What does this fold into?
Amino acid sequence: MKNLLIGCTVSVLALISCDNNDSLPLTAEVQAEAKLVTSSNTTGKVTFLDLLSESQTISSLTIGSLDAEGVSYNSETDEVLVASRTNNRLETYKGIKSNLSILNLSLNSLTGDFTNARETAVSGDKVIVVQDESASNSLVNKFFVYQKTSSGFTLQKTFTPKFKLWGIHLEGNDLYAVVDLTGDIVMYKDIMSNPSGDITPTKRVTIEGLTRTHGITYSSVDNVMILTDVASAASATDGGLVLIKNFSSVFASTANSGTIAMSNQIRIYGPNSLLGNPVDVAYDHVTNKIYVAERANAGGQVLVYNYPTTSGDATPASVRAEAAVTSIFLLRK
It folds into this structure.
């Protein structure tokens, strides 16, 4: 669902998400900020939490989409972005800073470009939307590239891969994507330079021991890739998290169609983890916290983990109920 802006001082803005995005230059100094935003596929709500607030009050805010994926938040414009599975379009809503319980629709794309959206990634004024195959789109998996304008979102390109899609992450101009129904991830080098049409990954690798990837995020500050494993969608007990440290080196040294071994992974699996169907993930490089949207357990939960140093059945540092949570985004300044 996102922009990744990374910095070590308050003069540079850092946005960290599941999914998912690249660096933009900022010149003005900004105040420290950390916001967590989630969306749901049944409630028509997004939640908003100021992680730096002493009260830690969670706001539940209504939007015009019962089923929303790929959430992100831009604090400069006070806009929440979602890919609406109810209306089959991109939508932005304003009103968080005004403490509105019902957010105002501010911009949207044309309805019907995509159906069965799963994730978004944001790079400047560009937004990529993932369409997962379904009967509603004639079983076509596709990336939709939009440009945000003052009046809405304009479709610029579409790319058609040859596999099922779910999570994506933009790092600069390179797109990482999970290959649904497998333990594989792919990378498209400089994806925006490709013409519309069929697209072939620059590299595809298998993550050893990972059954079915869904969520993906990367931190260039810590050089760590984090993936979620939903394993069997029918089970609420077999999910997990996979962390790959020194990811840039590990990925570069793995041949196309090769495997990243368990020896290069830190793995969280087991009953204490409460991971069943972890569908999205975000990471905070300042606090080293991992935030997970867990869809199967207790009707939906937001799970927070301390950064693990070894593999094992790690217990979450905190758990909160979040009905039908499907996407999660962390903004960090």
